[in-house]
């Protein structure tokens, strides 16, 4: 259980999104850079990453967030900020930009089912990233 000034909460979200055209671009150092940027975003927004898997053609993110952050806002933060940061830092260097599809999957997981989601994400091994 976590607390803010006015709330006690246990809100965990599983968010999945894809690169544009579902291209397998999230490999090697690109995947490492995306992971780093997603952690930076979480730190700056006060969100805890419980688990993260970057696969070649999609991202699984499992986060815990205060009640003020709705799932759509979280998806927009992670997708929008990550593509801007990545493209600003690396597109000129590598010539390859990162873009995400418009849609995403968002699911909730409470205290009991969060373990199930974590196990599911762990089954998608980092070796595939």
TrEMBL record:
SUPFAM superfamilies: Transposase IS200-like (SSF143422). Residues 8-124 form the Transposase IS200-like domain. Pfam families: Y1_Tnp (PF01797). InterPro entries: Transposase_17 (IPR002686), Transposase_17_sf (IPR036515). Signal peptide: none annotated. This is IS200/IS605 family transposase. It comes from Halorubrum miltondacostae. The lineage of its organism: Archaea, Methanobacteriati, Methanobacteriota, Stenosarchaea group, Halobacteria. The gene is tnpA.
């Amino acid at each position: 259980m976590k607390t803010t000034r006015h709330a006690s909460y246990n809100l965990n979200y599983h968010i999945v999104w894809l690169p544009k055209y579902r291209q397998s671009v999230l490999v090697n150092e690109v995947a490492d850079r995306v992971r780093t940027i997603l952690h930076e975003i979480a730190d700056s927004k006060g969100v805890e990453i419980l688990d993260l898997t970057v696969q070649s053609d999609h991202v699984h993110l499992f986060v815990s967030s205060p009640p003020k952050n709705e799932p759509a806002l979280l998806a927009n933060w992670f997708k929008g900020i990550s593509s801007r940061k990545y493209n600003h830092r690396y597109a000129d260097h590598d010539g390859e930009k990162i873009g995400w599809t418009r849609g995403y999957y968002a699911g909730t997981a409470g205290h009991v089912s969060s373990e199930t989601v974590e196990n599911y994400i762990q089954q998608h091994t980092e070796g595939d990233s």
